Amino acid sequence: MRTLTRSKSIGLFIATVAAAGLVPLAAGTAEAAPVAAVAAAGSCPAAGTVTQWYHSGHDGVDIANNRGTAIYSAGAGTVIVSGTASGYGQWIRIRHDDGTVTEYGHMYERTVSVNQRVNSGQLIAYMGSEGQSTGPHLHFEAHASTSSTRGMDPVPYLSARGVSLPCTPGTGTPSTNFTTWGTSVRVRTEPRLSAGVVRTLTGPTAVYVQCQTRGDSVTAEGYTNDAWSYIPALGGYITNIYIDHPDAWLPGVNQC
């Protein structure tokens, strides 16, 4: 157990007041109390046969099925693109609560608009063959952030959220989820302070912890801990100091 120097009851009070709209819940103050854990659900984007996997010349996966097959959001988030695009015909991009982005292409009809909030597994479009396409399919991509220029492999991205391809809509949701707290939380390639930083979290972020391991001992925010959590969706590790849980070693999470 680690000894807490911040008050959970005060943190819950602040979160409750913020939710009521009385004060903003700043993602940006280092002394901000941690928020309660939030389950970040993952959902199957579409039923069908995977006809092309991720490779050097293909930034996503292609899931083929009949024209009109329903397409669903792979996670909760906000629609940042919904329209036409060269190559795709029509496309949708969704920015999720952990900062990642999923991309959907070639549909013949879209059912969501820009700035719309969507839930995990919500219907967003119907499969088509518009743009550069040889038949009805969904081209699905996953990106680390809105600024990434290349998609990452969607298979481990979806797997980290409890979805294996090919999949059945309505399935998903990993069993272990946590929320980070604090600001300027660095995600590193290895559980070492000298390892490269793959991204920095600016505020509380819902994450799926796949496993945890021992690494460099870190002292921060009044704690010392050598446990690190691997966050597959972010492609790296963060010290458990910044995971909102009173235990230094997270319960129910396997060792890497």
Report the mean per-residue pLDDT as an integer: 81
The CATH superfamily of the largest domain is Glucose Permease (Domain IIA)
**Secondary-structure element series:** HEEEEEEEEEEHEEEEEEE
What gyration radius follows from the Cα positions, in whole Å?
A: 19 Å
Helix amount: under 10%
State the total count of DSSP E strands: 17
What is the highest CATH level, the class of the largest domain?
A: Mainly Beta
CATH architecture of the largest domain: Distorted Sandwich
Count of domains: 2
At CATH level 3, the topology of the largest domain is: Glucose Permease (Domain IIA)
Structure, described:
Keywords: Signal. GO terms for molecular function: metalloendopeptidase activity. This is M23ase beta-sheet core domain-containing protein. Residues 1-32 form the signal peptide. Residues 57-145 form the M23ase beta-sheet core domain. The chain has helices at 8-19, 154-159, and strands at 49-52, 61-64, 70-72, 77-85, 89-96, 101-105, 109-110, 117-118, 123-126, 137-143, 177-179, 185-188, 197-201, 206-208, 211-220, 223-231, 236-239. The two termini are 20 Å apart. The protein is 7% helix and 34% strand. The chain has a seven-stranded antiparallel beta sheet with strand order 1-2-10-6-5-4-8. By secondary structure, it is mainly beta. It is elongated and about 55 Å long. The protein has two domains: 8-40 and 176-242, no CATH class; 49-159, Distorted Sandwich (Glucose Permease (Domain IIA)), CATH 2.70.70.10.
